[in-house]
Structures are given as structure tokens and as C-alpha cells.
Design a protein that fits this description.
single chain, 167 residues, alpha+beta, two-stranded antiparallel sheet, 7 strands, 26% strand, globular
């Protein structure tokens, strides 16, 4: 069985725990191992916090004040994508992406390497943390209108009593 959902959220700090709780609830109901659920929820929180903090000016009241979170649990894998409408990552030849439909967008590999950030730094650890917690990460810009896209996958482990366990 597959489960997917998509949220269109305002770029406000309160949206981050909302997305995280929805993901945790979905994974708990499906029977995903709690350690895997925690890793994915932490990675999602980091990606959402980046969208809230870096996606541009919300003073104009347009769609640039929003971002989208899509999560897809299917069999042995969970894929999460966070896309915003801000300025995106710095220009690079790798900053072009092709769309793979409305639910999830394929983004290119990282346009700029993430610098090593001290473990006790208060800013700049988000993308590195996502890379540590997920099995596969793509980071890039949306084509056309602009904006950043961070997507990540993780192989799921299931509880023994999982109602939706992969067969």
C-alpha cells in the first residue's frame, strides 16, 4: 500500500512542527520503525525551517510566502520533498531541474557543496543534517519560476505489528 500527502504551507515558524507532526503520525499509523520516523521527521524539520528562513520576502503577500511539502511512503521507501518559491540556490550550471509530475519534482544534485559546519553552530547545519539522516538527497532549483527544492529518500524499517508493512 502507498500513502502520499502534500501540504501547501505559509512561510511561518508554526508550519514546521505541523508538517513534522503529520509525517510522524502517518508513519506511526503505518507502522514505520520509530527510529526511522524520527530521522525523517528531523530531516523534514530542517528542510521546512530552511524554506521558512531563506525563501524570500513575505511582505508582498503573494505565493512567495508559501512552500510545499510532499511525502510519499511506498513499500520500502519514504520520499519527502520541500519546495519553495524563493530565490533558490546560487546560480550554477547544475541549477536546472526537470519536473516529474505534480506530486514530486526531480531536482539536480547539489549546486554548491555544503561547507563543514561545527556541530555546535546555530545556523548552517540543516542541509548537512539532512544528508546524514537520509539515504539519498537531491538539492537544486525549480525550473522557470524559481525556488529551491530539497528532496530526500530513506529506506523504511517496519515494526513487527505494522499494518502497512511492505511485502
Amino acid at each position: 500500500m502507498s500513502i502520499w500527502w502534500s501540504l501547501h504551507l505559509r512561510r511561518e515558524a508554526a508550519s514546521v512542527p505541523l508538517a513534522r507532526r503529520l509525517l510522524l503520525g502517518t508513519m506511526e499509523t503505518a507502522g514505520v520503525d520509530p527510529d526511522i520516523s524520527y530521522d525523517l521527521s528531523l530531516a523534514l524539520s530542517e528542510a521546512c525551517a530552511n524554506a521558512v528562513e531563506h525563501a524570500g520576502d513575505t511582505a508582498h503577500g503573494d505565493s512567495r510566502g508559501a512552500y510545499r511539502v510532499t511525502a510519499y511512503l511506498d513499500g520500502e521507501k519514504c520520499r519527502i520533498e520541500v519546495a519553495d518559491s524563493g530565490p533558490g540556490f546560487p546560480a550554477s550550471p547544475m541549477n536546472t531541474a526537470s519536473t516529474a509530475g505534480p506530486a514530486l519534482t526531480e531536482a539536480p544534485r547539489r549546486p554548491v557543496p555544503v561547507a563543514a559546519v561545527p556541530y555546535d553552530a546555530e545556523h548552517g547545519r540543516g542541509l548537512s543534517l539532512i544528508e546524514e539522516l537520509a539515504d539519498h538527497v537531491t538539492i537544486g532549483n525549480k525550473p522557470g519560476r524559481g525556488g529551491a527544492v530539497v528532496s530526500f529518500d530513506k529506506i523504511l524499517k517496519w515494526r513487527k505489528d505494522a499494518p502497512l508493512m511492505a511485502v
